[in-house]
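Help needed: design a sequence for this.
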């Protein structure tokens, strides 16, 4: 999910990038949310993600996620 204003992508472009890679671009944060991408003025969705322990990515990390996948921003899964 994306909240706030991103400098390099519109919200629709970010949503399309997520969907093109097989992700879901939800409108709200829940315990099933994998990542929250925050831009300027993210609002309460970022707070809720933080409360739930969901990884919060700024735009640069979001681009890494899109280009290289979740392991690039989270590290490899533990064995």
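Sure. Designed sequence:
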């Amino acid at each position: 999910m994306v909240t706030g204003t991103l400098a390099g992508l519109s919200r629709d472009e970010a949503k399309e990038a997520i969907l093109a890679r097989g992700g879901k671009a939800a409108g709200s944060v829940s315990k099933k949310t994998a990542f929250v991408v925050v831009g300027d003025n993210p609002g309460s969705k970022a707070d809720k993600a933080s409360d739930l322990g969901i990884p919060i990515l700024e735009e640069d990390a979001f681009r890494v996620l899109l280009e290289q996948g979740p392991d690039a921003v989270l590290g490899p899964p533990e064995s």
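The chain has four helices and three strands.
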